[in-house]
Specification:
Order of helices and strands: HHHHHHHHHHEHEEHEHH
Strand content: 5-15%
Radius of gyration: 30 Å
Helix content: 40-55%
Shape: globular
Largest sheet: 4 strands, antiparallel
Amino acid sequence: MQLAVQMLEQARAEIDALNVFPVPDGDTGTNMSLTMGAALREVERKGPDARLEELVTAASQGALMGARGNSGVILSQFMRGFARVLASPRHPGEKGPAMVARALQEAADTAYRAVIKPVEGTMLSVGRAAARSAEKLVHRRPAARIPDVLEAALEGARAALTQTPRQLPVLAQAGVVDAGGRGLVVLLEAAVRAARGEVELEASAAPAGTAPDHGAAPAVEAVPGHGGIAETDVTFRYCTEFLVRGRAIPHQLLLEALQDLGDSLLVVGDADLVKVHVHTNHPGQALEAGLRWGELLAISINNMQEQNRQAARKAASRGAHAPAPPAASARGAGVVRPNRYPHAWAAGARRPWSRRRATRTRPVRRLGPRPRPRPGSSRPGVRPPRSERPASSRW
């Protein structure tokens, strides 16, 4: 888990720059990194002698308590579903790789259930594709090992990440892939490296705004000054988060009390501790709704309109020193073509990978009556020289 936190921190600036949905406030990488950091701290409290069941449960609880933002809360639900399987007894005859595949599927299902209105083209789609790829490998290769299962999940996640602009038009318009999905890919990359025994991370961190090399090229090549976060009006300005601690908290009633206040509503947890996340223009009313069922903890209210302004200024400053390429071209609905040759495009040159079509000249078929043969000539239809043409000749 420490490797996952380190890799997320290295990719934090890159993921932040991809954050255009649901609100372009540029904090997805930060929120996911903080959420994983809270999970790690809870695991470290258990000590080196703790069992696997205790460790995964602690990670799930720590992620819930320290979840930040929409992406952080959804990530905590991925971890909750994953921990639920690993902390429970195995099915009869079930081996480790099959259990990991089942845990990935439960993680994806738990995250989907937590979101009231799931949107495709987000980290939900990437997580589900990872789980399906892992299950397919287990069915196809019963002798597969745990690293093989995680590698299959990683490949499925990478493939799904490249498809997110097709599924979510706002991503195609900005020329980016989903930020939360990219964060999940980084976490799976960390899981694969840990399963292989590669627990140390390179000391060199990637510069801000660039993609660190984790063994795979970015799905869409980032072009400074193009796409990404732009200043916009945020409908529901305040990201409001808090914990409700009580007894027998009715999730459904709390959900109904909050659902008319805004969007991006998440109400997750258990009967005694509930995490609430909502984008609203009335954060006070959201807090009052939570107070009906218990005491409030970890209250956080952020102005996303101001976050959007700061993120847009940061994106503009990163692109100020780079040549501005033309608008990204698309093939099909919402698939952004990587701008591999921005300088050639900006100069109006022909694309380097295109080829001129070879053309063949065909003989022109003469229309109309066939010309008369020249008197005394055995070659009918041959045009005589101009000097030999009579004045009354058809030629």
